[in-house]
Design goal:
By secondary structure, the chain is mostly helical. It is built from 11 helices and no strands. 62% of the residues lie in helices and 0% in strands. The model has no long low-confidence stretch (mean pLDDT 93). This is Carboxymuconolactone decarboxylase family protein.
């Protein structure tokens, strides 16, 4: 059971309308958002930020953004967000080989050098203490412009919020997210952990 229980999807009409975004992204409204509804200003602000961060403004594809989110969530250990990110990457057209080999992005041939730089940036930016340095900056600028780097950092920062929210909450994970995580991450030991509904 989560620290705070999610509210009914119909609790706040404005949140419900905005949350239609997640029907495309995940196929359901996440329990994290339903919990934020306890203070609707937070749920609404979060959804609008999510939509802005995930909008396509350049060459950073929707699939790559979700893989950036997965690397960030993996670095922080949030099982809930790992599952959501891999599910969204699948739904937004990530190549099957990339989904199957996301753990090996640094060496697997399905990932380009530009993607490796973006994913390494996500890993370094998500660590505590922060590990972003001159070397990753140089690699990023070999492949990406400033606006695209801002998009990537937007995803990393958004998931920094989500990782803390969901791991502190022990947010109950939804069936669809479990299915995707088991398919792509289970072979590497992914499990629900504190998000199985029995925490606290």
């Amino acid at each position: 059971m989560a620290l705070v229980q999610p509210l009914d999807p119909n609790h706040d009409a404005d949140t419900k309308k905005l949350a239609e975004f997640f029907n495309e992204t995940l196929g359901f409204c996440p329990n994290s958002v339903l919990t934020m509804q306890h203070r609707p200003a937070i749920s609404k602000a979060f959804i609008n930020l999510n939509k802005a961060v995930m909008a396509n403004e350049g060459r950073v594809t929707s699939a790559l953004k979700r893989m950036i989110a997965w690397v960030s969530s993996n670095a922080t250990g949030c099982r809930y967000c790992q599952a959501h990110a891999i599910r969204a990457a699948e739904r937004y057209g990530a190549e099957q080989e990339q989904l199957d080999n996301i753990w090996e992005y640094r060496t697997h041939p399905s990932f380009s050098e530009a993607e490796r730089a973006a994913l390494d940036f996500s890993l370094q930016a998500s660590q505590v203490p922060n590990a972003v340095d001159a070397e990753i900056k140089e690699r990023l600028y070999q492949h990406w412009n400033e606006g695209e780097i801002v998009e990537m950092l937007g995803v990393i920062s958004l998931f920094g919020y989500l990782n803390r929210w969901n791991d502190s909450q022990g947010t109950d994970i939804e069936d669809g997210a479990i299915e995707s995580a088991n398919q792509y991450l289970g072979k590497h030991g992914w499990e629900k952990g504190k998000h199985d509904g029995s925490t606290y």
